[in-house]
Amino acid sequence: MRGIEKIVIGLLVLFICLLLSPLVAFSILGGGMWLDKITFSAEKEAKIGKEYLEEKYKEEFEIDLNSVKYRGYSKDVTFAASPKSDADLHFIVQADSQRKSLYRDNYMLNKAVHFIFDPLGDEDRFYYEAFLDGSSRYSADVFPGIEAEAYIQEIKDYSIQINLFTALDLGGDYESLVKRLAPFVNKVKEIGLIKARIVLLYPRSLDQEQQKVVFENMKKMRMNNEIKERVLGDLSFESEYAYKLCSIEIPDLEKSKSLAAYIKENCSELRDVFSK
Predict the structure, then answer these.
(1) What is the pTM for the complete model shown?
(2) What is the share, in percent, of the chain residues with pLDDT greater than 70?
(3) Are 22 and 55 part of one and the same domain?
(4) Residue 45 contacts by C-beta under 8 Å, 6 or more apart in sequence?
């Protein structure tokens, strides 16, 4: 009988091992990520995110439900939002997927940039956004609850990157472009953002109609959270978003004779567009 008992016990142990092995493999191979994905709810994330923003900034926000994304590799959630008071002001929010109230956003920084640039009245020809430190789209989680003008004073010593998207007027000349760009550069200098960088992004195409098409695509891309997650450099040669850029460093600009002279010295590809 003991021999039979041993066989039965052995078979039982084997059965249990076979039963548990898929679960172990599931866990080792990222089962937690798949469980998170399965239980993920865009509606729930949007609701929680909206509550977070409205509690933090004491104003109403709209969440783009189509932009709510779960990223398994980093186990976080991102979504695009805009204040009800300004539907054209889009910004990105990142949330920890473990519900630990770990949220980051760059609302105040982009609100400040709109405060600076909107009075110029050139929103139809330029689309602008900003990041602290020239890289992280989520790092501007500082000084919430203050007015944009006061916020600007707080970030004067920060390294800030302002992306300025536009379409070129190929029928114009180099001086006309500089004249259009100058008010934006002058505003940044005027308010004292001494460490700022303005990155001018413009379509690669030398066809005027294509300039307009790519510019509109670039604007849609920057308002779309899923595409915005991709590095701008990765998109630079894709036909829909194909662009070039000219980086204007405000500290270096101060050493140059003029904005026109700076662009000629540092942005040869942009200069050459108008010399052909």
Answers:
(1) 0.74
(2) 70
(3) no
(4) 68, 70, 77, 79, 95
